Amino acid sequence: MIRVLIADDEPMMRAGVRAILQSEPEIEVVFEAASGREAIEGAQRHRPDVAVLDIRMPGLDGLHAAAEIAATVPGTRVAMLTTFGEEDYIERALGGGALGFLLKAADPRELIAGVRAVSEGGAYLSPEIARRVIAPYRDGHRARSVEARESITALTEREREVLALLSVGASNAEIGERLHLVEGTVKGHVSAILVKLGVRNRVEAAVLAFRAGMVAGP
């Protein structure tokens, strides 16, 4: 069971998110908050697997709440759910410890997929957000492309297969199913990939894979 906390200052939005998530038998909403401060207190009290936070809330906003939850409740992984996709918000959210960034206007299935991926310790970006993250590394960045391709050579063939699937948003379970590996083995490969590539998380690994030409551009 994936235990989820929802934080949004709009009751209708909280109700909608709760309905979407609880349509899945393995997801349970254990706490709802109307502010960043309530979200922090709820996370500390209920220790959910995932906290889904809006960015703009009264008082303490979702970005500050995300950083506080990541620092004080390490077992709770954070995903931002917002109408705002500006690069500054994306950078601050991911830099503050969030593993997911989802848009409210996206397909409800993205919310479910994002919560599942983040609960497993993976990263998940809505496709529109992924395009914005990757865009700076598109045409004209040859030096970075060469450097990325050189970094990839440090990986084993199996690690490259894992990276390719990781880069398109596959969870550890999905990677294991595709490559016929147990989930623990996938986690080991992902950890080795992050170390060998010198990156902090799956999002940075995905960007590097794109630079190296392993993933088709948006």
From TrEMBL:
Bilayer-spanning residue ranges: none
GO molecular function: DNA binding
Family annotation (InterPro entries): CheY-like_superfamily, NreC/VraR/RcsB-like_REC, Sig_transdc_resp-reg_C-effctor, Sig_transdc_resp-reg_receiver, Tscrpt_reg_LuxR_C, WalR-like
Coiled coil: none
Response regulatory domain mapped to chain residues: 3-119
Pfam families registered for this protein in UniProt: GerE, Response_reg
Modified residues (4-aspartylphosphate): D54
Keyword vocabulary terms for this entry: DNA-binding, Phosphoprotein, Transcription, Transcription regulation
Alphabetical list of PROSITE patterns matching this protein: HTH_LUXR_1, HTH_LUXR_2, RESPONSE_REGULATORY
Gene Ontology biological-process entries: phosphorelay signal transduction system; regulation of DNA-templated transcription
Domain HTH luxR-type as annotated: residue spans: 148-213
Domain of life: Bacteria
The protein, known as: Response regulator
